[in-house]
Amino acid sequence: xxxxxxxxxxxxxxxxxxxxxxxxxxxxxxxxxxxxxxxxxxxxxxxxxxxxxxxxxxxxxxxxxxxxxxxxxxxxxxxxxxxxxxxxxxxxxxxxxxxxxxxxxxxxxxxxxxxxxxxxxxxxxxxxxxxxxxxxxxxxxxxxxxxxxxxxxxxxxxxxxxxxxxxxxxxxxxxxxxxxxxxxxxxxxxxxxxxxxxxxxxxxxxxxxxxxxxxxxxxxxxxxxxxxxxxxxxxxxxxxxxxxxxxxxxxxxxxxxxxxxxxxxxxxxxxxxxxxxxxxxxxxxxxxxxxxxxxxxxxxxxxxxxxxxxxxxxxxxxxxxxxxxxxxxxxxxxxxxxxxxxxxxxxxxxxxxxxxxxxxxxxxxxxxxxxxxxxxxxxxxxxxxxxxxxxxxxxxxxxxxxxxxxxxxxxxxxxxxxxxxxxxxxx
Length: 427
Ligand code: GDP
Ligand code: IMO
Ligand code: MG
Fold this sequence. Notes:
The structure is a single chain. The chain is of the alpha/beta class. It has twelve helices and 20 strands. β3 (41-45) and β4 form a beta hairpin. α3 packs across α4. It is globular. The model has no long low-confidence stretch (mean pLDDT 97). Bound molecules: guanosine-5'-diphosphate, 6-O-phosphoryl inosine monophosphate and magnesium ion (MG). Residues 8, 12-18, 40-42, 44, 293, 298, 329-330, 332-333, 412-415 line the site of guanosine-5'-diphosphate (GDP).
């Protein structure tokens, strides 16, 4: 079997955790390839509800190896807390493996994420303040510290001394903050290194072996295409590449290996943090969706902005990722609405806009062209076959397929594993 990437098609929180957990039943490996603990992936199963931030959503299957790839930035404190929490709740984590090439989030990253956000004032990006952006900055600036380096105490001390000197200049001279103490960080991170040691290894070989055996390998996306550092609504984006292409470099996998690319979309749109969102609903319907769906961030608890399904963004996302099929989640949330709109285009100053604008400032001035469809006003969460959905719900799904330009292979009508219907096999 091939590698399958499961990618957020919108601004994150599409239900990737639920979809990965569902598909992982057939997999031998699930790999996170980008982002950090800015992600919050919810999985609901017989053990309860779990919010995973760094650990892949396949962790609940003891036979599924769960890998954290080189493209992820790891806050060791957060990761170990997650491991402990899962263990306390009876979930085994001995099948977790971490790439020794993954970069480590250091205390100065988290500190700088907050300081830089505060310094932006009204122009704040609304980051999760988890240090993810600053850690990627250091990776690219070649000032990063990788997971494997924590194991070599002498080299780690030299490297940390060098990097911390640079960071303390920034903290004290630019931001007027107190400097961080080398010994404190060194001791804390050496202790983290000891606890992480059993999980750390070269992982690319493992993936190759699984693929050669014909196993299904899942690449679990974090964030979403519209938060991508290149293709998202820059600068209101995250600092990594959550798109399908990111799976190759975030794991060390040839593009030829990824045959299936599933785009996960909510049946409407949400966004956390700042930046343009043309279909945002600032009215009662937006609040109704938020409250009914409990649209509050799985990581920061912030209220998610809610709006209609954005077909322009979906088409764009489909093109960037080359989806082979879509997973549509949260259809049940719309059960109560008498009328539902889909955005089929944007206008700017009354004129149609071609495609998805590269500029966030242009995008913030775009208005959605909405097409209104009748709602179904009937419960769908116990339905398991497409044919059994109310005709209006079927028509809505079909119209989303047309607008996005890709077939919908799977529909989710509730957070639980079995609240899923398969329209066409993903594999
Ligand atoms: P992710 O970051 O893409 O994994 O998504 P999140 O976990 O942040 O947010 C998705 C939320 O929707 C979670 O609370 C899920 O439990 C929930 N969810 C997923 N699929 C469905 C669905 O089909 N219906 C409903 N009502 N909730 C869903
Ligand atoms: P999952 O994997 C939704 C958003 C933040 C902010 C922007 C930059 O659960 O879908 P960052 O901390 O990454 O520098 O913040 O990106 N963001 C997310 N929004 N879901 C996520 O992850 C997100 N990860 C980051 O809210 O607007
Ligand atoms: Mg999430």
